């Protein structure tokens, strides 16, 4: 199984988030699964790949050429797909992944999460959508999603497509469903 991971590439975040990403990468590899990321080598994105490789896991990165040009690419990936645009990046990650885990992140991470979640709801795919959030970063998002459902902006059943988890083991188990 290939697990697509969405996460921060910010170098200014608390190291606990980088450690979480590393732990998730190790967990994916120890489960015998492969990791798919956005192909970067810094912060959480780099750490999740390093964690997987530390446990002899296979890693695949998908990165736009413009980010390769500024030396952002993780050339230690087993596979590194270089694409033209962010849209192509997301499409390829979606195609080659069997499940998705979203770690703490900013606007880019959220944009990827929302696209994958909506795609699941619209039946463009039937792959698990998991949030791994042991630090409560996404608690306000969780509350917003519930509120949007209460106000009928989110259809019944859509909220339940997201599996909210707080440990690596819970996140990996949620990928198996």
From TrEMBL:
GO BP, one annotated term: cytokinin biosynthetic process
Secretion signal, residue range per the UniProt entry: none
Gene Ontology molecular-function annotations: hydrolase activity, hydrolyzing N-glycosyl compounds
Record Pfam families: Lysine_decarbox
UniProt cross-references to InterPro entries, sorted A to Z: LOG, LOG_fam
GO CC field: cytosol
PANTHER family associated with the record: LOG FAMILY PROTEIN YJL055W
Full protein name: Unannotated protein
Organism annotation: freshwater metagenome
């Amino acid at each position: 199984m290939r697990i697509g991971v969405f996460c921060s590439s910010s170098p200014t975040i608390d190291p606990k988030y980088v450690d979480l990403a590393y732990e998730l990468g190790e967990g994916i590899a120890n489960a015998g699964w492969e990791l798919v990321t956005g192909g970067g080598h810094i912060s959480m994105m780099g750490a999740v790949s390093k964690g997987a490789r530390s446990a002899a896991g296979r890693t695949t990165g998908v990165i736009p050429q413009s980010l390769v040009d500024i030396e952002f690419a993780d050339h230690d990936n087993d596979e590194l797909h270089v694409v033209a645009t962010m849209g192509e990046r997301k499409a390829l990650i979606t195609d080659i992944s069997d499940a998705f885990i979203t770690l703490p992140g900013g606007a880019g991470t959220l944009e990827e999460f929302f696209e994958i979640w909506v795609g699941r709801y619209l039946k463009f795919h039937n792959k698990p959508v998991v949030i791994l959030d042991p630090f409560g970063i996404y608690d306000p998002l969780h509350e917003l999603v519930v509120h949007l459902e209460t106000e009928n902006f989110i259809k019944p059943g859509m909220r339940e497509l997201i599996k909210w988890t707080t440990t690596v083991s819970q996140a990996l188990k949620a990928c198996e469903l």
